[in-house]
Amino acid sequence: MSFDVNSEIRQFYAYLLSFRSNREYPAIYLTKDSHLPKLRELFEKYNINICFFPSIDAIPYINSVPPIENIKTRIETIRKILRNKSFSIVSSIKAVSIKTISQQVIEKEIVISLNQYVDIQKLKNNILEMGYERVEKVIDYGEVAFKGSVIDIFPPDYSNPVRITFDFDEVSSIKVFDPETQISISKLDKIVISSPFENEISSLFKKNSLNVSLLDILENFKIFSFIPLEEVEKEYYEFVEESKVLFEKSNEKDSYIPPSQLFSAMPRIEEVKLNVDVLSPFSTEELTPNYSVVIKYVSSLLNRKKVIFLSPADKYTNRIRSILEKYNVPFVVISEYSDVFEFISGIDVLPKGKLIVIEKLHLPVGFETEEFVVLTTKEFFNKEFVEYESVVSDISSEEIKDIYFFENIQEGDYIVHSNYGIGIFRGIKEINYFGKVKEFASIEYEGGDILYIPPEQFNLISKYIGSEQPKISSLKQKNWKSVKQKVRESILKFSRDLLRLKALRQIQKKEPLRVDFEEYRLLEDSFPYEETPDQIKVMEEIKLDIASGKVMDRIVCGDVGFGKTEIAIRTAYLHILNGNQVMVLVPTTILAEQHYKTFSQRLSPFGVRLGIISRLRKDSEIKKTLQELETGSIDLLIGTHALITEKGAINKFKKLGLIIIDEEHKFGVEHKESILKSREDVDVLMLSATPIPRSLGMGLSNLKDISLITTPPFGRKPIKTFIIEWNKEVIKDAIERELRRNGQVLIVNDKIKGIDSLKDSILEICSGILSEDDVCVLHGQLSKDEIEEIFFNFVEKKYKVMISTTISESGLDLPSVNTIIVNNAHLFGLADLHQLRGRVGRRDVEGYAYFVYPSRYIISELQMKRLSTIEEHSDLGAGFRIALKDLELRGAGNLLGKEQHGNIKTVGYVFYVRMLSETLRLLGEGLNEEEVIDYSDPVVYLSFDKIFDDDDIPNSEKMEIMLKLNVATTEKQINYIINEIKDRYGKVPSGIFNLTEVVKFRLQLRRFFVEEVYETDKGITIRFHKNHLPDGEKIIDLITQGRYEIEMIPNDPNALLLKVFSDDVKEKTKEILKFLEDIFDLE
């Protein structure tokens, strides 16, 4: 076991261990500026209450602008200390010695507490005077929104915005909310509103702008240093001298604070000795296929030191218990420590001679002192424990996402009406209709014709999402009905074909596979990362599939880098342990080679024999591989689509049990269906890096088994995305910054033509940074030997920069590439841009993506929209939202086939998904084909007053609320939306309850095959489906009994008029439903 001197980790442990010797508290602890981010991450992760104070990170006297986050953290810490001087602080000598923003600005704050009485108008004025920007929806720092009895605000001291709700002038609630969903996530007893301070930064280092340093505020604090004192002193004096030189050179001396007043004097500091060694984890080879090496190490320590294993979760306690029992190692399990401080303080009383397993505690990595050794999951299982947040709700995340996914319609958007076709949304209009004023959606059709839709019919409208501008429908020609019918017929045929194919595969029986192997658990243990909740869930679904005795046909969809390959590896190993062979099918040769390396690294230590067939392999190697395949000497074969040709390897397996298709969206539907038909007894697992939308996944759940991976790996950072014109300085800076952190750069060109001149430009821009030998070029016209040599030399870091075509797009793992520059990005599809961006930023390294278009080039509106979308959605898992513009269209087209892709373009993505889900539901209810084609969701118009009775809610948000309620399909969803409205706006407009009653009523109407319910001054008109008419005799019987007043409608045999008159919507809908139950004899 070797030692790794990791500076930040050692400092973190030195801080913890210092409390065993009763270190004075609070105090200032000094380190290097570069160590602060990692230390902050460690202290926050383990809930250790300590403040951080970074340097300003701006050079005095040259108009340097500091990072806003640094200034925010500095002021946040000073405010905390001014309120309560019981916190210790981690900082640097540069940070603590330089003066910060004036104390008057720091102390300017408003405190609002629960149940406090407040002059609301005065509070609003004070907030605006402090410098907050008034907006409709609060998303960023320094923003405020006034919504009637609610104030949303994002002060600099908070990591999320805060919502203050008033009951008249009393504060009734204070809640933190998520800026993306606008939903509350926690409660507060009070909020401290401090100045957003951005306006002070411009005057940094100017006279009268800075008058206090941290050392001035904390003059009685003791100061310790994690780094040698000579380094601290050197850093301090060099910074002071550098500032003096810059001050003398400045042309604005009179406006600046002189260096003599800018710095506090060098304080007295005590050095902290780092008497702790950080342990290196065992390698995978040492850990697999058993734990004999680590057990030998532990046994050698037991007689000399206390040996402690921190077990963060039950699964680790159970796992280590079984391992220790197997090897007869004495141990004891202790579960009495609540946090790491209590554990560190109690180490002295722990016994020797036994491995001590401490439950429910974890640290990032093990460490050793003269007295004891602490082991973690990193040493024992080669993985750092990550605790993923679990969300508990009475409504599932799938149900929540169903109602939030599509409904963001703005004025000017294309909109689809189920019965009238595609128009343009022209906003919300208030109209007086039958004596009631309420909101209507205004839709413009061909020729300027306007259609007004009441809110209870918003279930019939959806945003048009398609790959190109749609054709506006005409209200006069009425051709939409035939368009819709044609699409419905196509969906019906498609659904029946796939249901038939799925049924055939379900009929196929095979021997159930075992899933409880000890060897499989060792493979799980050897995975160097903590599995995400989605990965665990997907593997459980797959285990149920293969243990059921039915043939598996599952697709796993997830964004780039979310852990699908590990799912494939584990599934393959389960099959191999059951004596089966596995085929892994990939779209490109390079990906085949890379998968061969990845699968080999994970499975070879467990004795799995792997083979590969690709154009980069010699004919003699391929011939030998095929022979070994037939004899069963190869367990797992990787290759491209050549494997599935008539003469391909698919027919050579001795016992093929599983086919894995990676990047399945790169294969045609015909390819995939031919595999399913040719090997009906073989399990199939498809992996898609193109995210399939959850709504489509739910809709297709009756056709395919779909698993979604939406949780990003812990620690993975969003990719910083920039859309820029060609700019030599920016490109040089991007390349230089990546090389400084010992990374590599991938530059992608849209075509082979011009790729050499692009290389020349890069070499010219980066003269002195890059040489000819540092840059390689890769494209599909090179020979297979050249492609292999260039690519693998780049992976081995023999080149710093690779310039390529999109040959580098599909599924490749380029671990050292964390900056990508895409040239002529305006010529790429959105899906391609998202896939390319996914090549960078793996795990905890921040990635940069630059999408470049030519300078002085006018790109089209559509191209700019595409680039803006990729820039806007740069967060993790963004593919599920990018999908709404282009990516999901491509994913849906590949999953469903060319004909369905055409249907999506015709009627829009959202409406298509609704029709597909509806068709599957109706088929499941036993309707015949004619009834399915004729079906339409009930159209309801009932008279009631306007929904929103004030202007505190913007029109765009009114539309959002009404749409959400109309797409809700369960009472749980409706209640969830009601609670969200109350949360966001402080109260629920009374008219909302009328709309919710109508939504519930409409869902009930499906039972009776009612096509329309329409209220006029004469009563309620009810129109039935022609194949589901009520019994005429039953109606006459009810009239005779005098239970209902009913009139038949001349010239409309499918409708009747029910004489119901009420202003109460709930009573009105209740009476209509009772009538329908009576005429159909339903309860």
Keywords summarizing the entry:
single chain, Rossmann fold, Penicillin-binding protein 1b fold, seven-stranded parallel beta sheet, 44 strands, alpha/beta, globular, six-stranded mixed beta sheet, 1083 residues, 7 domains
Uncertain stretches: 1-5, 391-406, 878-892
Number of continuous helical runs: 38
User: Number of DSSP strands?
Assistant: 44
Rg measurement, Å: 33 Å
Largest sheet: 7 strands, parallel
Mean pLDDT: 83
Looking at this structure, what is the CATH superfamily of the largest domain? P-loop containing nucleotide triphosphate hydrolases
The best one-word shape is globular
The CATH architecture name of the largest domain reads 3-Layer(aba) Sandwich
CATH class of the largest domain: Alpha Beta
Structure described in brief:
The chain is an alpha/beta fold and 1083 residues long. 39% of the residues lie in helices and 19% in strands.
